[in-house]
Amino acid sequence: MPNIRRTQHLGLIGMLLIAVAFTGLQLTAVTGRASPDTKNYLSYALSLSGEGREEAGRRAIDYSCASGQHASLSPVPWTNRKAVGESEEQCVRRLNDSVAYWTRHGNTSGMTAPFANQRFMAIFEARPGYPLFLVPFVAAFGTTWGLWLAGLVVALAGSVCVLLTLRAAGASRRAGLAGQALYLALPTGTVAMNPLSDGLSLALGTAVVLGCVLLLRDRPRTGAALVAGGFALVFLVRYSQALLLAAALAGVFVLRSGWLRLKQRQFTPVLRAAGLCAGLTVCIYAGAHLLGWPMGEDSAQDLLTHHYQRPDLPNPWPEFFVQEGVFWSAWLRRQAASPVLPVLLALSAWALLRRRSVVLPIALAAGAAGLLNQAGHPNLGQLYGFRLIVFLWLLPALVIPLLLDRPARGASPLPAQPEEVGGGQRDGTVGIAHQVREGA
């Protein structure tokens, strides 16, 4: 018992040290992370906290323009949002003029300030979860520190879920801590810190991944509750990502159950997980449809009409698929020039081939959800970003740490025999296996 407690304490200390180091690093860039969409979420949150729509828009503009003047520091990459050549005063004037213009042209309702036409702002109206999450942070700490602290909570929560996922899958303590550190060091940690809905949907996605592992590790009730609850929350934060993740998990689980059945192995828990995720996929799609939220064709029109500022295309799909080809060819050239992700994916493939773990198919589904989300938004403006494809980076964070553990040995076809020693018997592996069964 003392050894078990000592091991638990070491794991907790390691987790806290990683969290403290990450927090200290993020203090070097408290602001400077805002993107053009940040003001939409912030004005929504301020409206929820009781501000008038006009005042909420003004405060969101002040934050966004002030943030744009702070370039990111080198230890915190991928966070520079500064518009070259635009002063803070020019930024405020431009956005205030935009608000006045769209107010005159009919955008007079909703929780978000009228930064664009009403059809475009409806995209953010359909994501109430993130603004609602921001309300207590902004109310207690103001916009700058509130958004920073909210991002920190999101990032650390996601990293702890990754650690717990690996531990629940049977990985060692060092593998779990490596997963936590990787999650925070990779763009997953950066996206989580940015004041956008992507980080919160990613953190909730890691909770879904943890639930799937528990679902397959003889914890069906806890796992199912975590999966269903996680998807319900992701639906409110970013329902399109919830839909893609649920569909990817359902598809991978169906393939996995079919493979297990061919191998004449137990496939019922995997098939049950597939049914749960398939049912949630249908519920998410039906819920978004019933609420009248923008769907796939709206997203395609948004891309091709520059946020609905040009007339809709009668059939957007041919042009949309042309944009897909343009984007992915440019994306592949980008990866060849800066092959960080390809190297990590190669290491992940090696881990997939050399390790056996329940987390592997789940991590593959999460990565597929990231690719699908990016495919739904083939915008060249996102070529150097990570937020739309961020679930793909979850794959190396979950899989590469497994390389720190020894590969699982295949079971011997014959049971081990007890070894006689001095008139007695030494159980050896038989005794160990017996103890494991008793512990289970």
What does this structure look like?
The structure is a single chain. The protein is an all-alpha fold. It is built from 17 helices and two strands. A two-stranded antiparallel ribbon has the order 1-2. A hairpin with a 2-residue loop joins strand 1 and strand 2. Helix 9 packs across helix 10 and helix 10 crosses helix 11. The chain is globular and about 65 Å long. The two termini are 17 Å apart.
Q: Output the structural class.
A: mainly alpha
Radius of gyration: 24 Å
Unreliable stretches (pLDDT < 50, length at least 5) are 73-83, 410-440
For the biggest sheet, the summary is:
2 strands, antiparallel
Approximately what portion of the residues adopt beta-strand conformation? under 5%
Average pLDDT works out at 88
Shape: globular
Output the strand order for the largest sheet: 1-2
What is the chain-wise order of helices and strands? HHHHHHHHHHHHHHHHEEH
Alpha plus pi helix count: 17
Helix content: 55-70%
The tally of beta strands, per DSSP, is 2
CA(first)-CA(last) distance: 17 Å
Compile the SSE list and pairings.
Blueprint (H helix, E strand, L loop, with lengths): L1 H25 L11 H11 L4 H15 L20 H17 L13 H8 L3 H40 L4 H13 L1 H7 L3 H20 L3 H43 L5 H23 L5 H9 L12 H21 L2 H15 L4 H17 L14 H10 L19 E3 L2 E3 L2 H11 L1
Antiparallel strand pairs: 1-2
Quick structural gist:
With 440 residues, the chain is mostly helical. Helix content is 69%, strand content 1%. It is globular and about 65 Å long.
